[in-house]
Amino acid sequence: MSFLSCENLVKHYGGGGGGFAALRGLSFELSPSEMLAVTGPSGCGKSTLLNIVGLLDAPTSGRYLLDGRDVGALDDYRRTLLRRTDIGFIFQSFHLLPNFSLLDNVSLPMLYAGLPSREIKARGMELLASVGLGGQERKKPPQLSGGERQRVAVARALANRPRLLLADEPTGNLDSRTSADIMALLRGVCQRSGAAMLIVTHDPEVARKADRNIKMRDGRAEN
Amino acid sequence: MRMLWLSLRTGFVELWEHKTRSFLSLLSVAIGAGVFLSSFSSIYDAHCRVRKSLELSGEGRFSLRSSYARSAEEKSVILTMGDLRAISAAMPWLYMIYPIDVSWQKMSFDGASSFYAGVAGITPDWRKRDWQYRLEGRFIDDYDVENASKVCLLILPGQLSGEDRAMRKAFMKNWSRWSGFDKYVSRNTVTPGSKVKMGRYELTVVGLLHEPPQEEDYRFRMGAQFDAVMPITTFNDMLSQDQNNVGQIVIDAGPARKVEQAKRIAQVALESRHGPIKELECEDFREVLSLQMARTVKEAMSTLALGLAALLAGGIGIMNVTLAIVFSRIKEIGIRRAIGATRGEIIMQFLTETLLLGFFGGIIGIVLGYYGVGNILLGDFSHTSKLTWWMPLISIAVAMAACLMFSLLPAYRAARLDPVEALRTE
């Protein structure tokens, strides 16, 4: 049974006859613990797909089912609530808050989710330890390497035990060795947590490590 | 509660990480709050002074004046002690009634130097109102009035406060503006028992009336001012006038609601002695008070407008800075929205940050308000505002309210940012 199902997704930007279609009827499914890579040239609609799947944006038409529930037409507030509990994001540029400690960065989603303080701290430290950064809770992101920052981003994405992980070029700013480490980490996370994962990438090495691939072109899947 | 704590922590971190921006924002809030506090304190002080003046002066006071005919059809009404007794008999419930007449007389203490001074003839009832003097010696009594005793009291400027000393120092530079009496008493010690030549009489100074310091002087100054008082009968003798004559009769009917009744009864009493009086020359203290109050309110509104303008300027500065902060943190807003912050939580975060500015700015503003922004710029720390315990709280509350109001738009704009666009921002 698929956890995520997209049927004929269309996303149109602009109106009055002058806009363009970033997605032109994309359909796919994703199961728990499955890692799906989405590849394609720049401008093919990968990021648009990620934003819609991540509930940062809504499709113009089509259906988006998450765990059997149609979430495509939800308002911004409900999408936000769902995003904070069910979805974790990993970005190419890490997007950590530079003035806060690693523990604070990892704890942020849990604070928004309203978890108790004691649980937040304990889980935060556990997550940092699980990505190999135990004992460095007080450090701040500028003090870390690229690979270490991405590990923190992974830890943050896992904070609320999401069922869907979305990674936008997670190795885009990393060297090949670090990229391999991060992919291994992501694979392990996927298997241990049972979360479904969708990775948008240009890197064929990353795509090869996924369970399935979707190649996109001009807003459609080629395969 | 957790979200509030998160917002507070974020606010503190942001304030600390951008010290220059925070300092300048704090300063603009502090100046606005300081000017507002200073204005508010002035208004409150003026209000308290008017209230104290009213307590001292009494709300039911009015005075009757002798009137002189200006044409053949008009009749002069020269008030006398007999009129005073008639009015007093008609209204035994009066709180106070006394006669007063004022003149300028040549005064000399030692025969060597002489000068003109204001002199008033009164009776003992005069001390029932506007009494803020420190009496050294004794006051005039009924015996003095009945026997036209050759006694007087001198009115001396009281102990000077620090502020008065500074003002007096400035005033001393214009020595020529001082009255002869002021110059004499500032250079010489005068004590009860001293002799003073006034007009054709040598009088004994039986008492000294020390005035309070200027900032503690709540008296409403009505009519001519004078430097010495003596029994009305002695006054008339000195001026070779009929002993019975008086310039004015000052009456205090008690509560303000009794004034009109008192005026009517007084007119009836006078008409029984002088015949019909077309228009009684009467000065009602309530009219003087209204004028004073109107003047005070006008000054207060101007001062408050100044304070509000300062706060407005500070608030616009806050809005500008908060907008700049929002645009500099677009990416952070996108991150927070992506990981689950609602629009309301984004608004709360930015409002909390500016409320922090308002709080600390308000605290600094208390110091500025106490010493006065203008005084600080001039390096003068001697003049301070009178603050009650709740005024600083008002200052902080107003500063926080202003910051909140002026950060609503920037916070709203932050919350409305598209997280996708925000995350793309470099």
What does this structure look like?
Chain A is an alpha/beta fold and 223 residues long. Chain A has one domain (4-100, 144-221): Rossmann fold. In chain A, 36% of the residues lie in helices and 25% in strands. Chain A has seven helices and ten strands. Chain A has helices at residues 46-53, 76-86, 102-113, 117-130, 146-157, 176-193, 204-208; strands at 4-13, 20-30, 35-39, 61-66, 69-70, 87-90, 164-168, 196-200, 212-217, 220-221. A six-stranded mixed beta sheet of chain A has the order 6-7-8-3-9-10. In chain A, strands 2-1-4-5 form a four-stranded antiparallel beta sheet, with helices on one face. In chain A, helix 4 (117-130) crosses helix 5 (146-157). The radius of gyration of chain A is 17 Å and the shape is globular. Chain B has 426 residues and is an alpha+beta fold. Chain B has two domains: 2-53 and 292-424, no CATH class; 60-284, no CATH class. Chain B contains 14 helices and ten strands. Chain B has helices at 2-17, 19-57, 81-90, 142-146, 162-172, 180-187, 232-238, 259-274, 285-328, 330-338, 343-371, 373-378, 391-416, 419-424, and strands at 61-65, 96-108, 114-122, 134-137, 151-156, 195-198, 201-210, 228-231, 248-252, 282-284. In chain B, strands 2-3-8-5-7-6 form a six-stranded mixed beta barrel. In chain B, strand 2 and strand 3 (114-122) form a beta hairpin. In chain B, helix 3 (81-90) crosses helix 8 (259-274). The mean pLDDT of chain B is 83. The A-B interface holds A 51, 54, 56-57, 76-77, 80-81, 83-85, 89, 91, 95-97, 99-100, 104, 108-109, 111-114, 117, 156, 160 and B 2-3, 6, 9, 13-14, 17, 331-332, 334-343, 345, 419-420, 423.
